[in-house]
Write a structure and sequence with these properties.
There is one protein chain. The protein is mainly β. The chain is built from 1 helix and 10 strands. The chain has one domain: Beta Barrel (Porin), CATH 2.40.160. Keywords: Signal.
């Protein structure tokens, strides 16, 4: 009996959505001329301490990621826009003998095109195509002295599926699930060392899941 509850609820809501869609066949939320303000933000803190009896270890970390996006509907249910963001991460480790610190900073620019596909009036599937460029620096310090630095550049071109659930004409919950496309990563060190990685992949790890709120005006 319990195994039938979830499929029953899903079937019920699907019927409601389909009936709603059929009752207003020409009513859309993302009409031509609509602006869309959205994006994602992540904030993290961590603080840990261990004592083995012979030595102790104190680890602190902080991370901030911000990526606002602005889009414009060039046609019904089709938006064109771009996002500009930054990422900052730092971690500090003190074992009582030495102090180590790692810093990561980057800037990112990502134009996109997004298609809304209506399932029912409040529910839309989305398909987002994007091309992004990110540039930044990684630094490592030992006891306050810098002993490592890398400059990096990341490029990506691909598509991401998602879901938007509209609360009203102005607000919608959005999710982005996974990424299919090409990625390029290049790293350069001050001593002349270089590395490069090129790959085409389908990613469904947790770093490719985004949830947020969008505002339409």
């Amino acid at each position: 009996m319990k195994k039938m509850i979830l499929p029953g609820f899903l079937s019920y809501f699907l019927c409601v959505f389909m009936a709603y869609a059929q009752s207003e066949p020409n009513s859309f939320y993302v009409n031509k001329g609509t602006w869309e303000l959205s994006g994602n933000m992540a904030l993290s803190f961590a603080d840990s301490y261990t004592d083995s009896g012979q030595s102790d270890n104190d680890l602190n970390s902080f991370g901030l990621s911000l990526m606002p996006e602005l889009g414009y509907a060039i046609a019904d249910q089709l938006t064109l826009g771009a996002g500009i963001g930054f990422v900052y991460n730092t971690s500090k480790n003190n074992n009582g003998i030495s102090k180590q610190e790692d810093n990561y900073r980057s800037l990112r620019f990502a134009p996109f095109v997004k298609k809304y596909i209506r399932v029912a009036k409040p529910l839309y599937f989305t398909l987002k195509g994007s091309a992004s460029y990110e540039t930044g620096k990684q630094e490592h310090f030992d006891n306050g002295q810098k002993n490592g630095e890398n400059n990096f550049d990341n490029c990506a071109v691909g598509v991401s599926p998602g879901v938007s659930v509209f609360l009203n004409d102005r607000f919608a919950f959005q999710s982005q699930i996974g990424f299919l496309g090409y990625r390029h990563h290049k790293t350069e060190a001050p001593n002349g060392g270089k590395s490069r990685v090129d790959r085409f992949s389908l990613d469904f790890n947790t770093t490719q899941f985004f949830f947020g709120l969008a505002y339409y005006f």
